[in-house]
Amino acid sequence: MRSNRAKMRAGVSMAATLPMLAGALALGIPVAHAADNPGRATLAGTKPAWATAKADKGATADSSKVSARVYLAGRDAAGLAAYAKAVSDPSSASYGTYLSTRAAQDRYGATEAQVAAVRSWLTSAGLKVTGVTQHYVSVSGDVSAAEQAFGTQLHNYAKGAKTYRAPAKTASAPDSLNGAVLTVTGLDNAPHLASHSDTLPPPDAVFKNAGPFSSYYGSTVASTLPDAYGGKIPYAVEGYTGKQLRAAYGAGSYTGKGVRVAITDAYASPTIAHDAATYAKKHGDAAYTGGQLSQVLPKKYAHTDECGAAGWYGEETLDVEAVHAVAPAADITYVGGASCYDDDLLDSLSKVVDGHLADIVSNSWGSIESAQTPDLQAAYDQVFQFGAVEGIGFYFSSGDNGDEVANTGTKQVDSPANSAWVTAVGGTSLAVGKGDKYLWETGWGTEKAMLSADGTSWTDFPGAFTSGAGGGTSATVAEPFYQQGVVPGALATANSAAGNRVVPDISAIADPNTGFKVGQTQTFPDGSQQYSEYRIGGTSLAAPVIAAVQALAQQARGGKAIGFANPSIYARYGTKAYHDVTDDPTGSGLAVARVDYTNSYDASQGLLTSVRTLGADSSLEAVKGYDDVTGVGTPAGGYVESYRRR
């Protein structure tokens, strides 16, 4: 993920009598009693937390326009969640008994009668139906019509320095719909958008790394620079390659052959095929075969300026090249979103599920949990649950701002990585030594200090926190069954005595200072567009690496889909399947020296030299056992092989 947006659990039996609220109940959202609004069923979570009485600026004009999506609960929302759990749990008799896309829709999808009833309700209120899918009915109209349809007034509320529209009370739907509605989104018009967090400037301006470099960890020592942690430190690696990552994470002879991996991001790089093929050839990765890399793209794009469309090209490039480097025979399908808005990213995820385009889905984007509203969380969870019953697993980067305090002032996790129906991927600093030997990892957390003007010391060593793997305890998502007995109680109960979801689940390389080399066409100062390479990191790297490792594991399993992987990931906790990552594996503190171009592309304007500490992630710590930086750890040599026996 490139900054923050670039990212559920048991209790389904409670929703048996109100299937339309299953998603809300799974999120821990309080549900109003029918008596509070006679003749109508509340759509829990549709009034955002920031729409407070103090922030209320009065009613929105009746003539203002609203565009909304009414998400459909389907035939049996509670049954969908229950089966998604059962089919993913190795201890369940239904484990691995996946449904086809058609069977899943026939069993749990919305009926024609439900869709017709929802359409009739919306049009009778004066709204215009603008689209119908198997997941939602989209509508547009005046505020007055939306208020009539959803049983709430719309007011304007101050949110930060801006003002946005939102429901004055929780929205509702008629009881006569018999639970056909899951939730509605779009009644509030605050931006719901994602960003990626790969710590790279947009690719429309060239970015290159300066040297000296290490070719493997410790190969080049910064002998002329000041000591750090009591001794000389190595220069940052130039960028690990697939060969080094495959060795570090136990790929063995597996290549991902026969496994399909999907990648979702916003927009699409116009040079991805050329860049990916060039990179593979330069670094000894297998050449792409015909049709091995394909794209599924929308008919048109939106919000290109607001989302920084060109900045997403580098994200796609990183994701594609990382998956191919680690799983060179896996088929890759890139599914581009029309924008970085949640609705468009949800559409991309739904395309993967509806067409079963892959069994493994890598997603390097997200936002802070406080920016994600419960209505959207319910819509996301429904897609993830449909994926689970079909044998599709979703992997989300956990974020690049540590505990988010430095970024937002509030300790929190990122979303959709906080969903109990996805695998949240945290990040590490990775040391691969001579001969591609795995040495150690720390949790990814960087403190940066600059070289003094006279070159004899580091200013304010170890310096200020700059970035680190996202993690921590959710404030909204209840503790899922697979984390119970593994996640320490102090973490699980940090925000609730009953226990909440803790992020991440598993981790892989993320630190840009021990990062991965990628190749991409960029725009140089003279206006020319040229292929060039640079080192990159972020949990945007960790997510596709783990997705690729899962492709290797699925191949080892004889090609049978792993599906929603968290129950099986936690079932292997404490075994030789994982490297148990800690922040100080050598006992002496760790850092690397890094040299950067002042202008980001050449030495004409000078160089910047800094020391980057490893294993210093805000308030988060990588400790022995499960932790909120690396989860259960990183894949070791026994991880992929462990799937061969099951």
Topology overview:
Elements (H helix, E strand, L loop, with lengths): L21 H5 L13 E3 L13 E4 L5 E8 L4 H12 L12 H8 L3 H13 L3 E5 L3 E7 H8 L3 E6 L2 E6 L4 E3 L6 E5 L56 H7 L11 E7 L5 H11 L10 E4 L7 H4 L3 H16 L4 E7 L4 H13 L5 E4 L3 E2 L5 H17 L2 E5 L7 H4 L5 E2 L7 E10 L5 E6 L1 E6 L13 E5 L3 E7 L10 H4 L7 E4 L2 E4 L6 E8 L5 E8 L2 H18 L9 H6 L6 E2 L10 E8 L9 E8 L19 E2 L1 H8 L2
Parallel strand pairs: 10-12, 10-13, 11-12, 13-15, 15-17, 17-23
Antiparallel strand pairs: 1-8, 2-6, 3-5, 3-9, 4-5, 6-7, 14-16, 17-18, 19-20, 19-28, 21-22, 24-25, 26-29, 27-28
If you had to describe this structure to a student in words, what would you say it looks like?
There is one protein chain. The chain is an alpha+beta fold. It folds into two domains: 12-185, no CATH class; 242-471 and 502-619, Peptidase S8/S53 domain (Rossmann fold, 3-Layer(aba) Sandwich). Helix content is 24%, strand content 24%. The chain has 16 helices and 29 strands. Strands 10, 11, 12, 13, 15, 17, 18 and 23 form an eight-stranded mixed sheet that branches. A four-stranded antiparallel sheet has the order 4-5-3-9. The protein has a four-stranded antiparallel sheet with strand order 20-19-28-27, with no helix packed on it. α7 crosses α9. The longest helix has 18 residues, at 539-556. The radius of gyration is 24 Å and the shape is globular. The two termini are 33 Å apart.
